[in-house]
Amino acid sequence: MRNLFSLIAITLFLSFSTGVILAQPGQGRGMNKNKAANLLKLTDEQKEKIETLRANHMKEVIDIKSDLQKAMLDKKEIVRKGNIDRKGFVAVQEKISELTKKMSLKKANHQMDVYALFTAEQKEIAAKHPFMFQGQKHKMQEGRPMCPNCAQKGMHRRGMPTQCKPVVVPVK
């Protein structure tokens, strides 16, 4: 009985540790940030200023994102209730559009604030590598068709196939 317990414990340990050992490092945003910093040969002072700008930018964007999520929940609530009111539905959609635009402008201003820190040589390098100022797409979403019902690409959250219902606004 002891030997059986020991064998099971060793097997479990090896199966979990093998996954950790063989795991590959991710290709997340941190990798791209470091790649860009190495490519541009940023000084320590520039890196520090960029990190300060990034932290301030994220603090501003977090508030906008939370407002955006609340507006999206409001839209879902309007649809869920059934008898959809055109005025309320359109008002929430306008708020969502406004918040999305605000986030895009914050991002563009942040990118230009970072760009202003570059030397002339670094600006030339950045011009040759436009990926530094373009949004990163997830590899699984590239080339996927848009969902006709909700304008999301391909699969929805949690890997579930598209099962969304079309939103139909009744005409009054």
Summarize the structure in words.
This protein is mostly helical and 172 residues long. The protein has a domain at 28-126: Four Helix Bundle (Hemerythrin (Met), subunit A). It has five helices and no strands. Helix 3 (44-80) runs antiparallel to helix 4. The longest helix is centred in the middle third of the chain and has 37 residues, at 44-80. The termini are far apart. Mean pLDDT is 75; it is low at 20-31.
* E-strand count: 0
Q: Which whole number gives the mean pLDDT?
A: 75
CATH topology of the domain at 28-126: Four Helix Bundle (Hemerythrin (Met), subunit A)
User: What would CATH call the architecture of the domain at 28-126?
Assistant: Up-down Bundle
Taking the sheet with the most strands, its summary is: none
Total of helices: 5
- Estimate the global geometry from the Cα principal axes: flat
The CATH first-level class of the domain at 28-126 comes to Mainly Alpha
Class computed from helices, strands and strand pairing = mainly alpha
Radius of gyration: 24 Å
- The helix-strand sequence is HHHHH
In percent, how much strand structure appears in the residues?
under 5%
Oligomer: single chain
Distance between the termini: 76 Å
Helix content: 55-70%
Uncertain regions spanning at least 5 consecutive residues: 20-31
